[in-house]
Amino acid sequence: MDSLRIEATSCSPLIDFDPAAGLLRIEGESYPENSFDFYAPVFGWLEEYLKAPAPAVVLDIGLSYLNTSSIKCMIDVLEMLDGAHQNGQTVSVRWHYDSDNDRALDMAEEFAEDVSLPFEILAH
Amino acid sequence: MKGNELFNLQELLSRQKLLICFSGPFSHSVIEELGKAVRNHLENERIEKSAIMDVFSVYVEQAQNVRNYTASREALGRPIPANSGIVVIGKEGDHYVVSSGNLVEADDVPGLSAMLEKLRGLDKAGLKAVYKEQSRKPREPGASGAGLGLIDMARKATRPLEYSLRAVDDAYFFFSLEVQL
User: Fold this and answer.
1) Burial class (CB within 10 angstroms; exposed 0-12, middle 13-18, buried 19+) of A6
2) CATH 3.30.70 corresponds to the domain A4-123
3) Using a CB-CB distance cutoff of 8 angstroms, which residues of chain A are in contact with residue B56?
4) ipTM of the prediction
5) Which InterPro entries does UniProt cross-reference here (chain B) (predicted)?
6) Which of A68, B20, B99, B104 is the most buried (most CB within 10 A)?
């Protein structure tokens, strides 16, 4: 399967998914003009990938700001990964946040509440 | 605009301890550029990062709501007359206040006021429950948002959302929303 890479802009994050290594990275800020259009290729790629993923998959998220429609998209991404976890695959999330910003911590904790997969929250 | 009108407008705006005011057609690039300006300004004020992000995020939700609503009416073949959106960020005492106003179709008024009244009656725990419920709903086909914007603003606000809906003519109301942080 091909890797997926979408370069960051000032209002949309870097998407860098390496299928062989099982390393998925989303980093930056997310308030694009249309979040659902922006994340559509991410959903499509994950759906395909999670049928036969690497032995261990880690999603590294370093999002310092998300608007509400991006939050909805991220919930959907996490649900897809959580489904794979519940099917016995090794999937985990590492959420990176800036320790100056307690809003970012609150947000990470809320995302973690709704999933059962291993979810680490790391301050930087 | 005539000089005395501009003077009156500027005087009215400066009384609000204004950071920014934008009125006109909202494009994504306008939203982004104004957002950057607001953040730069607040960073120079040396206020906490979480407070900067609260102002910025309420501004983005309001501006994107205005833009998405306008675009959705255009897509339905019912463009809103006189591109009417406005967003204002000001300061009242120690609190930043983010406000927006735009024309909405009369048919949307009952749903909008029911939603706002519901949110106004909820405490922090109630707002979180409504937010979680809405965030788990499947997205409505063709919707530009997730239906979370108003709930998110209510959660960040330090007092219940203030709003008004004023009839402009038979077809439109002017909707204003004020969020105190």
Assistant:
1) middle
2) no
3) 65
4) 0.91
5) DUF6272
6) A68
